[in-house]
Design a protein that fits this description.
Length: 220
C-alpha cells in the first residue's frame, strides 16, 4: 500500500509541469492573429508581422480569421508635437484652475457683499491710488517740461547772440528731455491702468448683477 501511494505521488508531481505548458498552448491558439496594414510612402503594406521600422507608423489591424478590422493605431508623435501636446495639456489645466477660482470668487462675492455699494468699496482704494499716481505724474510732466523749455530758451538766446552753448548746459537739456520722456511714459502707464480698472469694475458689477439676478443699477 505504501509503495503504491509513493508512485502515485511521484506521478502527480511529474505531471504538474505539463499543465501550464498545455494551458499556454491552448491560450496561444485561442488568441486571434492579426494582420497589420500601414503606408510606406505611396505604397500600402500589409503583413502578419510588424517590422521595427513600422512600429511608429499609423496602421490598421485586422483579425486574420474574420477579416474584420480590430483596431487602429495612430503614428507616434514627433518631439515637437509631444511638446505642443504637453503645452496644450498644461494650458487646459491652467484654464480649469482659473475657472474653478472664478467660481469660488463669485460664490464668495455673493456671500460677502449685500449690494453694489459694498462691492464698489472694494475698488475704492485701488482707484484712489491710481488717481493719485496720475495726478502726481501730470504735475511732474508739467514741471519737467517747464524746466526744459527754460533751458532750451536760454540755449537759443545764446545761439542767436552768436555764443556757443556750454557743454554743461547741453547735457542738462539732454537730461531734462530724457526725464520728460520717462515721466510721460509713466503718466501714460498710470492712465492705461486706470482705464483697465474701470473696465474691471464694470465687468465685475455686471457679473454681480447677473449672479444676484437683479437689474442694471440695484442701489437698494
Amino acid at each position: 500500500m505504501s509503495r503504491f501511494a509513493t508512485f502515485t505521488v511521484v506521478g502527480l508531481l511529474l505531471a504538474v509541469p505539463l499543465l501550464p505548458a498545455q494551458a499556454q498552448k491552448r491560450t496561444a491558439d485561442a488568441t486571434p492573429k492579426k494582420l497589420y496594414c500601414w503606408n510606406k510612402g505611396s505604397e500600402r503594406i500589409c503583413s502578419d508581422a510588424l517590422p521595427q521600422e513600422a512600429v511608429n507608423s499609423a496602421r490598421e489591424e485586422f483579425n486574420l480569421r474574420s477579416g474584420m478590422r480590430s483596431g487602429e493605431v495612430q503614428r507616434a508623435l514627433t518631439d515637437e508635437e509631444r511638446a505642443d501636446a504637453a503645452a496644450q495639456a498644461a494650458q487646459q489645466r491652467l484654464d480649469l484652475a482659473a475657472e474653478q477660482t472664478r467660481q469660488r470668487t463669485e460664490q464668495a462675492m455673493l456671500a460677502t457683499y449685500e449690494n453694489e455699494d459694498d462691492l464698489r468699496r472694494v475698488f475704492a482704494e485701488r482707484s484712489g491710488i491710481l488717481d493719485n499716481n496720475i495726478h502726481t505724474a501730470s504735475y511732474n510732466v508739467a514741471s519737467v517740461r517747464d524746466a526744459l523749455v527754460t533751458l532750451l530758451a536760454s540755449a537759443g538766446n545764446r545761439e542767436l547772440d552768436g555764443q556757443p552753448v556750454p557743454d554743461k548746459q547741453a547735457e542738462r537739456i539732454r537730461e531734462r528731455h530724457a526725464e520728460l520722456v520717462a515721466q510721460r511714459r509713466m503718466q501714460a502707464s498710470f492712465e492705461q491702468q486706470r482705464r483697465a480698472l474701470d473696465v474691471e469694475i464694470e465687468s465685475t458689477l455686471q457679473r454681480y448683477r447677473l449672479l444676484k439676478g437683479v437689474g442694471s443699477d440695484p442701489r437698494g
